[in-house]
Amino acid sequence: MPRRFHITGPCVPGRDFMVDWSSRLARPLASLKRGESLLIHRGRQSGKTTYLRELAAALRRDGLAVALCSLQVAEDQSLLGLGRHIEATLHAAYPLPSLPKWNPTEPQSLSLCLYLGDVQKRLGKPLVLLLDEYDAPPRKLTISLLRTFRSALSLQDDSRPFVHAIVLSGKTHVRDLRDELRPTGDESRGSGSLWNIALPVELPGLSPHELEALLADYGKDSGVVLPPKTRDELWLRTRGQPWLVSRILYQLDEQLGSPRFGVAESSPPPSPTAQQVRAAADQLLQEDCVHLLSVGDVVQGRKEAQELLLRLLGGEEIALSRADEVQSYLLDSGLLGVSDSGQRLEIANPIYEAYLLRLLGD
Known about the structure:
Elements: H1 22-33, E1 38-41, H2 48-61, E2 65-70, H3 79-93, H4 108-123, E3 127-132, H5 139-155, E4 165-170, H6 174-181, E5 199-200, H7 208-222, H8 228-238, H9 242-256, H10 274-287, H11 290-299, H12 303-313, H13 325-332, E6 336-338, E7 345-347, H14 350-361
Parallel strand pairs: 1-4, 1-5, 2-3, 3-4
Antiparallel strand pairs: 6-7
Helix pairs in contact: 3-4, 8-10, 9-10, 12-14
């Protein structure tokens, strides 16, 4: 089956056009092997689940055990339901006769942690939990689960076994959950941490080299070659943001067709133009697609984040400061990037810029 640009869910190697993920996995892999827990914080259609799948495959190649669970599809919205879902995922991944069953006892949270520690012992290798859509359950349940797992990671020993490491992935940053626990008006940082995060996992855009490789791959399959001006326009509009790249190329592919859609080999398909790239980008802004709506969700109710974005939209130059929590939040969420000089902040791409200008202007 011909490969396509996939825009409605996780990408699958061999089915969809994809770039090589290995350079993006080296740092998270090293952290997880050390037993450090990670956070992936991005809006919808940002490649989180695709990233988790590639990370899971890399961990398995390196000899670790992996359970990739989506808490969005848990049996019910209770701790028992989440535990049963994690248990079922483990049994599906490792159908060993010796793998234990979870027999919940009170308190269920402690029982689940001890069960997971027993599973790791039975498997005979470090177990990493990848929890996709970790923030999908009701807020109180999510907070309770994080507190339980944080304590289990901190206190584990031979008498209190637990998993080796955990990756949280969702559209909610853990600091948002922490802030929800504070009384109104309490500005102190206190000891409200719900999670010990070694580092937030970056999901960077495609580099110019990766974009060129992707387009070359597409050209081999389809016969469609993007001229230099068209490639430059695609980079200018998207700055390599993966979903935006795929969405524009998907649109061009659907409109122009290619040999696999019945164009005679003697009549090669037309080459996309820079004007068509601009038109596809403008169409995205008119559609208010789910991906752009999630960009708005990132700053909803965040006055300081909105003010920072408005300053950038107004042309102000702002120095990069990772110690600034607002900057860090917007960088981690993918709305901001760093200038080529590495010294200044900038909005991630012109499509986001146009959308935010319209959103915040309203």
